Amino acid sequence: LRGYLLSLLRLERAKKLQEQKEKEMLEKQQQQQQEMAAAAATNPVLNVAALLASGTQVTPQIAMAAQMAALQAKTLAETGIAVPSYYNPSAVNPMKFAEQEKKRKMLWQGKKEGDKSQTAELWEKLNFGNKDQNVKFRKLMGIKVSLKTLQQQEEMFRNLDVQYEMARSQTHTQRGMGLGFSSSFSRGMDAI
Fold first, then answer.
1. 143 CB contacts (<8 Å, ≥6 apart)?
2. Of 54, 94, 114, 163, whose CB neighbour count within 10 A is largest?
3. Per-residue pLDDT of the chain (192 residues; tens, 9 = 90+)
4. CB-based burial of residue 54 (10 Å sphere; 0-12 exposed, 13-18 middle, 19+ buried)?
5. 24: Cβ–Cβ under 8 A, 6 or more apart, which residues?
6. Cβ atoms < 10 Å from Cβ of 92
């Protein structure tokens, strides 16, 4: 029990440290993104209008880089998520990358304590006799079944019970009858 409690404390500590690291990384990333956006706006190489005004010849590569920088700055301003520098800016759509990051964060964020789905409430009503068996069953099932599925399962189990009772009654009350057994009538005919 003591080991279990210690491991819980360690897990809680590790979780807090992870959250703190994520918060620090997010702050650093936002700061870098703001610096990149400011640099992109002031950098004469990436600012096509300034290059054209200065009389410098603008190549398609420079124009494309300027467009990508502007798109990344726009994405950063709208979503707060920037494409990391190790990605090729011409190969990654910043808006799609931001959407993916948001989805990833929502996926790994986890549920809050008060959130319960309808299926979880349905499974909680299910009773197997004692609490331990109920909890074990819910864990194994993943608590992802709808009301309709539960009703279908209940009907199927009722049908199985009825069929079992019918088969049981036939085996106990009609013993010695059916294929492989001779009837009393055919025994009488053999004697003649």
1. 117, 119, 120, 123
2. 94
3. 788 888 888 999 999 999 999 999 988 888 876 766 665 555 544 455 655 555 666 567 666 777 777 777 777 788 788 777 777 777 778 788 888 888 888 888 876 666 666 666 776 677 778 878 877 887 787 765 566 777 888 899 999 999 999 988 888 777 777 676 666 555 555 555
4. exposed
5. none
6. 14
